[in-house]
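Good day; I would like, with your permission, to put a structural problem before you. What I wish to show you is a protein chain and, alongside it, a tokenised description of its three-dimensional fold. Thank you for your consideration; the sequence and its tokens are set out here:
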Amino acid sequence: MLKEGGFLITILVLSRFDFRIDPKLFLSKPELHSQVFLEQIPPLMDLHISDLHEERFFFTYEFSEIKTANLIFTIPSPVARGGQEILMISIIIRNDEEADLKIFQELLEQFAIELEEIKDVYKGFYKDVKDLKDSHQIYTIIEDLLNSVYNSFPKETILMEPRDIKLLMFDFFKEGKSRIAEILREFISKGQFHKDKYEESNLLYSKFQSLN
């Protein structure tokens, strides 16, 4: 997946807002702690944390070499200030990839839902606190969830004719393929794609070509 210059096609980052030291990177897949651009991701929370009026807030942000799709969300936490942990899940791709970042919104929301369903999930963000029972085990569950998402994403790149718009296609959890198709149908219904140019197939549309 590495390309010249050391950048990966796709990186998944989970950030956490630490009220003592501000936002920080919690987990990334793959683990690229030496990559300078990863340090730019957690501070994005500061830009939009005031927009978190509901459970989740989605936004995109582009840097000179990368662009990101991000979802800020909260989970209940009796040990955090305000009774909740503020988190952000981000997908990073190269800036020269012609993917519409909005296509990732529902997929990031699905990740947030899966994370929220983990029992006592807040404990996983305090794995170094000795008095917090099961914190290491829950941290491992969070890490496994992030791994399962990363390992299934992206599967392949899809080229849509005639506009040569590249979209990332991936198996996101069990319903990933159907969700991608569903999102694309919504784009068509909104007039963003011309329906008469595309015929629906089992997954996407027959005018799409897989790129190796």
